[in-house]
Amino acid sequence: MIALYCDTHDIRDRIEGSLSASRLHPADSRDGFERLLGSASVGIAGLLQCSDADVAWLRKTVSHGLVGPSCVVVTPLSLKRLQRLRRIESTRFHVVWAEEAGDRLGRVLAQINPWHHDPLLLLGRRLVRDHPLHPCLVSAIEHICRLSKDEDPGPPAASVDVLARQHATVPPDTFRRYWREQMPLRCPPKRLLSWALLLWAVRQRPRAKWAAIADEAGVRRRTLERHASNLAGCTLSAASRGPAMIQGRFQDWVAEVSVADQDSTTVMVATPM
User: Fold this and answer.
1) CB crowding 22-34: b at 16 or more within 10 Å, else e
2) Is 271 a member of any domain?
3) Same domain, 86 and 32
4) Do 64 and 107 lie in a common domain?
5) Helices 210-217 and 189-204, interaxial angle, to 10°?
6) Which candidate, 209, 12, 207, 245, places its Cα nearest to that of 119?
7) Is 164 helix (H, G, I), strand (E, B) or coil?
8) Strand runs labelled E in the chain
9) Which of 129, 156, 195, 223 counts the highest number of beta carbons within 10 A?
10) Does residue 273 fall inside a structural domain?
11) Contact 122, 41 (CB under 8 A)
């Protein structure tokens, strides 16, 4: 779902002229746009002035945790607007100049949308790109969130100790210390690792039985049952029937444990190719 808000008819016409109307859910007000973002993967904000107040509103609006919706800002090209937009310190924001919307908007959305199909992948991307993490944490997140180019990566590490030694290549105590000091998630690494294991196991269910999946992950089936119950509040059978439900509960959990965005990154400006 793509939420849309525009403060002028001209920009709205440009946006609707470059995208299929069936993809857009327009809002007549900013309050309506904010409500739509609650269930949208992407929001498009067409702003004529893109003033300081507009930028502050955008930053406040798109703050739904580390797996919240992305925002594409469509506004006329000017140096002042670019300078204002650079204050939005998050790569979840993308800028398309209104003069280029016909050619660029569809391409930008095509780049963004795939990340929102997999919230674990989206979380990993935003963690490593938006936050100044120690290299050992980057390596761990790349493993947990499957950021490698492998089409079918194996299960995540069976424990935090294995994650630290084999993937972060630091002692477990050192890894946990860096995690507490730098990770913008209010949770221990074991919690995220447990979610990653559950999400991986649910993806494997169509091709294998739970016992075989647990064996491949190096854990007992009882561990998977406990993760489904404790994390998602359901049984393994329910999890296998509703993978989208599991992803939704993971997104809700990330929103709860996300720390406020750090002032560490910059807005992504879509430049002509």
Assistant:
1) eebbbbeeeeebb
2) no
3) yes
4) yes
5) 140
6) 245
7) helix
8) 2-6, 24-26, 42-46, 70-75, 93-97, 268-269
9) 156
10) no
11) no
Quick: pLDDT tens for 230-271.
999 999 999 999 999 999 999 999 999 998 654 444 455 554
For residue 271, is it left (φ>0), alpha (ψ between -120 and 50) or beta?
Answer: beta
This prediction has a pTM of 0.86
In a domain, 135, yes or no: yes
Question: Do residues 62 and 181 share a domain?
Answer: no
- Are residues 254 and 118 in contact, defined by beta-carbon separation less than 8 angstroms? no
CA pair distance 91, 108, nearest whole angstrom: 13
| Residues 169 and 89 both lie in one domain | no
Tokens representing residue 233 in the block: 């509040």
Residue in the block written with tokens 């599991």? 246
Domain total in the chain? 2
- Cβ atoms of residues 137 and 179 within 8 Å: yes
